[in-house]
Amino acid sequence: MFFGVDNSAGVGGNVAAYDDILTIARAADELGFAAVWTPERHFQNFGQVFPSPPVLSAAIAAVTSQIAVRAGSVVLPLHHPLRVVEDWAVVDNLSRGRVGLSVATGWHATDFVLAPERYADRKARARADIPLIRELWAGGAMELPDGTGATVTVRPNPRPVSPRLPIWLTTSGSEETWVAAGRLRTGVLAATVGQSRAELARRIELYREAYRTAPEQPGTAERGTVTLMCHTYVGDTDAAALATVEKPLTAYLRAYVRQKQSNAGGDGRAAALTDAQLDSLTAFALRSYVRWGSLLGSPDTCRANLADLADLGCDEVACFVDFGVGRADLLAGLHRLAELRKDLPA
């Protein structure tokens, strides 16, 4: 999982970031990981190298051969469903059927300069479009007015390789979103950060029940997939891992809070923090996160944490890696993670 902060400056300053992404994606492909996720973010340094998941995913598809290529996420209210299907059908062809996407409703008000009229009802819009995207992916058509006002029937092209598009719904923690994902029979893409183990256990139970009792829907799987994003770095020892991640992860957490401060559509609580309060908050968050909800530590620590997440009901862990650790360390940690995966149940 990629969701890094853009620390570049000037023209061409992002070249190294994209080189890192492709290098890491190739390594993950060779090491047998299941998927690589890239998000959609706009107009801020937090995630700013990811304004177009299908463009970056096309590049990833071209340099890999086995790993699934997924959007984590597509901010669906910013896009016409037809265009989403067209873009991702191209990636599906380039990857020979390895595409999946998670739908996000969007939360930062500035993102919606692209579609300001869609901000207020963004959640309803996104959820209403999920069945439509499934239908279009399967070859369905839409009737829409063309440039002259005449109604025409259009069908997205190219046709994808995969007959079914795996879809997740992204949630920042709302129980209502977990239930909505179950009713829509999508997977769930969530993060461990900001939620206790007990809270996640309850939300997974709610999701499973909603999925189990939802009516059959074309293009859906028998069972939903719970994917949890965790900051990840596997070191030789716990102490070595913490020494490697402490500085970059603290800076990342500060950038995350600063992004929330800049959101005009937020609740205003983050905006009220002083620098001293922000320092205390990020230090507390780091200590808490190392104790639970991350894959930061030795192979033994991370193996135990993965087993705990499996007991919780998690199907997949999206290992968030680009939070500031250098490329060489990151790749070494990825190899250690691949080794410990061999001891885990499928």
Explain the overall architecture:
By secondary structure, the chain is α/β, with parallel strands linked by helices. It has ten helices and ten strands. It has helices at 15-30, 53-63, 81-94, 122-137, 175-184, 197-213, 238-261, 275-291, 299-312, 327-341; strands spanning 35-38, 68-75, 99-104, 142-145, 151-154, 167-170, 187-191, 226-234, 295-297, 316-320. Helix 5 runs parallel beside helix 6 and helix 9 packs across helix 10. The longest helix is centred in the C-terminal third of the chain and has 24 residues, at 238-261. The chain is globular. It starts with 14 loop residues before the first helix and ends in a 5-residue tail after the last helix. The model has no long low-confidence stretch (mean pLDDT 90).
Please provide a brief summary of the model.
The protein is an alpha/beta fold. The protein has ten helices and ten strands.
